[in-house]
Design brief:
Elements: H1 2-7, H2 12-24, E1 27-28, H3 29-36, H4 40-52, E2 57-61, E3 64-68, H5 83-96, E4 105-110, H6 112-120, E5 127-133, H7 136-140, H8 142-151, E6 157-162, H9 165-173, E7 179-180, E8 191-194, E9 197-202, E10 209-214, H10 216-232
Helix pairs in contact: 2-4, 3-4
Length: 234
């Protein structure tokens, strides 16, 4: 796997760390450093780079970050010409991962590439609920969002509440007529609900950080709250 990862743009150390995460699953940076025999500070830098590229994620437990491979599909970001190699690596990853029928997952994603992957998830959704839309993604990753608008299924239903004039203008590009949050309640933290996923994003200094929650009960609760707010608004 290491050689194939290097062929699609990973450095040797990045490939070693990524393969170790596939093999060992959720693990702390210090534990991983020992497993791969790479200096701890170097390991931390490699993990930070892989998080920013959208290839891995982390969760904090007892004030310590534990890293894991979130979604092998991230290998395809910006690598269309190397699709066959990435697909082969993804197959190996899936064979090693245990996939549970009942998914409960919380993960943190940083950077533009992660935002591209997360925003692509709702393309196949039947219905989308979005609160506090501010049009920031269309500004930060305009080409990718234009592709999403082109690919978006016309049968997908969307209810959107915007928290800025830019958000309202952005929705016009999707053919969506949103409701507008009263100005005194505007904020810059969009929340998107689709299927069993809730995505909460902040864009401080144009650096997206997203918390992705995959749990049916949580998603249903957010949907009910959204519908209540939707019904109260004009």
């Amino acid at each position: 796997m290491i050689e194939k990862l290097m062929q699609i743009g990973f450095t040797k150390n990045e490939a070693i760390v990524f393969e170790a995460l596939v093999n060992y699953g959720e693990i702390s940076a210090s534990e991983l450093s020992k497993k791969v025999s790479i200096d701890r500070s170097v390991t931390y830098n490699i993990l930070d780079n892989l998080v920013l590229k959208g290839h891995i994620s982390y969760i904090s437990k007892t004030s310590k970050k534990r890293f894991f491979v979130k979604n092998p599909d991230s290998l395809l970001i910006g690598l269309q010409q190397k699709l066959s190699i990435a697909a082969d690596v993804m197959k190996t990853i899936r064979e090693k991962q245990r996939i549970s029928t009942y998914i409960t997952d919380v993960s943190v994603h940083e950077g533009k590439d992660s935002l591209k992957m997360l925003d692509s998830e709702w393309l196949s959704a039947r219905k989308i609920y979005a609160l506090n839309v501010i049009g920031k993604a269309d500004k930060i990753i305009p080409y990718h969002m234009a592709q999403i608008r082109h690919k978006a299924h016309k049968k997908t239903q969307a209810k959107v509440i915007v928290s800025s004039a830019r958000g309202r203008e952005a929705m016009k590009l999707y053919g969506i007529k949103p409701k507008i949050m009263p100005k005194k309640y505007w904020n810059n933290v969009p929340i998107v609900i689709h299927e069993d996923i809730v995505l909460i994003t902040t864009f401080e200094q144009d650096k997206p950080v997203s918390v992705r929650i995959q749990n049916k009960n949580i998603a249903d609760a957010f949907r009910k709250d959204f519908e209540l707010l939707w019904g109260l608004m004009k």
